[in-house]
């Protein structure tokens, strides 16, 4: 299962960890967008952002395969549209 989380929820998930290894990271400098998947103590957190459109979303899953597929999906959108959000032009 993948759930959308808030920054406060991500902070709670981070308690007890000193490092958060980056599993996948893709950026688009032109649109100031990024897709980043990190390992947290209890699972994986996916961050999706686009500074030029003032958008930021976080997702959490204990299942790497599920969250990696979502990560790859948003990277594909970013390569096509210039930013990682499907419903935004």
Distance between the termini: 27 Å
Mean pLDDT: 94
Radius of gyration: 13 Å
**Order of adjacent strands in the largest pleated sheet:** 1-5-4-3-2
* Number of helices in the DSSP assignment: 2
Outline: globular
- In total, the number of strands is 5
The percentage helix is 25-40%
Order of helices and strands: EHEEEEH
Tell me the structural class.
alpha+beta
Q: For the report, how would you describe the main beta sheet?
A: 5 strands, antiparallel
The figure for the number of domains is: 1
Strand content: 35-45%
- State the low-pLDDT regions, or none: none
Detailed description of the structure:
The protein is α+β, with helices and mostly antiparallel strands. The protein has one domain. It is 29% helix and 37% strand. The protein has two helices and five strands. Strands 1-5-4-3-2 form a five-stranded antiparallel beta sheet, with helices on both faces. A hairpin with a 4-residue loop joins β4 and β5. 19% of the residues are buried.
Task: Summarize the topology.
Elements: E1 3-5, H1 7-14, E2 22-28, E3 33-40, E4 43-50, E5 55-61, H2 64-81
Antiparallel strand pairs: 1-5, 2-3, 3-4, 4-5
């Amino acid at each position: 299962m993948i759930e959308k989380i808030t920054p406060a929820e991500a902070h709670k998930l981070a308690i007890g960890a000193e490092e958060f290894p980056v599993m996948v990271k893709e950026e688009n400098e032109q649109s100031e967008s990024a897709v980043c998947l990190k390992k947290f103590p209890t699972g994986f957190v996916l961050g999706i952002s686009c500074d030029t459109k003032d958008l930021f979303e976080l997702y959490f899953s204990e299942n790497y395969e599920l969250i990696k597929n979502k990560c790859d999906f948003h990277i594909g959108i970013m390569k096509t549209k210039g930013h990682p959000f499907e419903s935004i032009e």
